[in-house]
Design goal:
single chain; alpha/beta; Rossmann fold; eight-stranded mixed sheet; 10 strands; 34% helix; globular
Length: 361
Amino acid sequence: MNMSGRSRALILGIMLGIPLIFSGSALAADNNSGTNNTGDSSMTLEQKWDKTFPQSDKVNHQKVTFQNRYGITLAADLYIPKQNSGKMAAIAVSGPFGAVKEQASGLYAQTMAERGFLTLAFDPSFTGESGGFPRNVASPDINTEDFCAAVDYLTTRDDVDTNRIGIIGICGFGGMGLNAASMDTRIKATVASTMYDMSRVTANGYFDAMDANARYELRTKLNEQRTKDAQSGTIASAGGLPDKLNGDEPQFVKDYYDYYKTKRGYHPRSLNGGSGWNTTSALSFMTMPLLQYSGEIRNAVLLIHGEKAHSRYFSEDAFKKLSGDNKELMIIPNASHVDLYDRMDIIPWDKMVTFFNTYLK
């Protein structure tokens, strides 16, 4: 895929929080913004329905909190089928990268609850309504742990069968989900939808276009920013999507804009539609490959990707590492990356139900 320098800079800055290597500057901001800036379990959560999708009358919904092993309190939406009895199979959901539970992950969770699963859509650490300070930080370790902490929470519920727990990770949290599955054997089935390998794309750039010299230059600039942050007492923000596109962006940037910056998917707590990640968040992803041990996953995995998605190669390459007859790659004809965020007519709900019913039994 050919992109102009500006377009490449734009999308990398949006999704990875690393505009410094392109623009030579970043917006210095005090990242105390957000609902919470600590791991305090007494946090106040929004109780009114503020999702980007309509509320279902087939499920019961409530806000819950739980802690990960770093002591960070995570905020989540719990969806329970109204027609249920006994202990249920459960699914934890998160993503996309830079999104919040009021967007795609909540839609996935509610829809799967309508189909009989108890589901939990959570905000990752440092984002949305979840705790953690400073705000707007991503971490391959902590964000993987967030999935495991969600499993911890589900095992404490009397209405969950602890032997029937799965996860769904969307976009960048598809990669986090696979990483969690390679570590946490309690995760019996994993769906990664329209997956990004965030460590690969951060270290290598899109389509592996960065070499060792480019990585060194990036690390140098990001660490220069760390010095500036330390000296100023503020934290530079990479910035989310711009308020207006100029028209020469590649199609997938326009697709992101159409989701995050319009009524379709905009949410004020989402980083991609607002201030973006902290600029230096990219550093840890450059040296901690998320999918190093994904080939050792023994439990079931379903990778779902759009035929026309710019990110399709992440799922195709991840699938090559997997082994066993309980692994599957499903390519959705004519679908883009963002189509799998919220297109009810394109997301393969029946396939996911069959997959989880098969392996969560």
